[in-house]
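call fold(seq) -> tokens
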Amino acid sequence: MDELPVIQTPDLSELSAALSENRPSWDEYFMLLAKLAATRSTCFSRPVGAAIAKDKRLLATGYNGAPPGAWHCIDKKQCYWRQPENQTPGIEPRELSRAVHAEMNAIAHAARNGIAIEGASIYVTMSPCVNCFKVLLSAGIKRVFFEHIYDFNNNGGDKFLLDYYKQYADLAEVTQLKIGAESQRISNEFINEITSKRRHDHY
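ret:
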């Protein structure tokens, strides 16, 4: 009787170690989720996404756009507050924006679903504006991670924001987070290819 072929099984401990070394950190993981949330943005200006997490668990996500049920700026292919006919003397045009910021939408999502976020962290693809930052503090957010600093059209607003955050350093920690090259490579591979393909031929 012919002998059955022998399958060489790899060392599971070595495989497990290799896989563990090639996973995004928890902070990178939640920032990646924020970046994914931004793909749902309906703001005509720029997409922003946010993710709120606590104890290594996702609590809520949000992206910038009009309130639920309202028409979106991308539908009309215009930034509402930038249109001359929509501006009012004495009111800063930006205040007339139809968009709810990603951070606000994430907090609203949590509120509508009865999710407590006190003591949580938020991951945002752009640094929070002054109003959003104050609401984050009031909601009890303790750690703020942002990917890109809001540049105020390159007029020096980035330095202003960083200085503004510092005055609340006893309430919340603010950190700029760049996703590492390896984590970017892995996430791109998972998105661009079949996500759940076998890691090894024998499993």
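The helical segments are 12-21, 26-38, 73-76, 102-112, 130-138, 157-166, 181-192.
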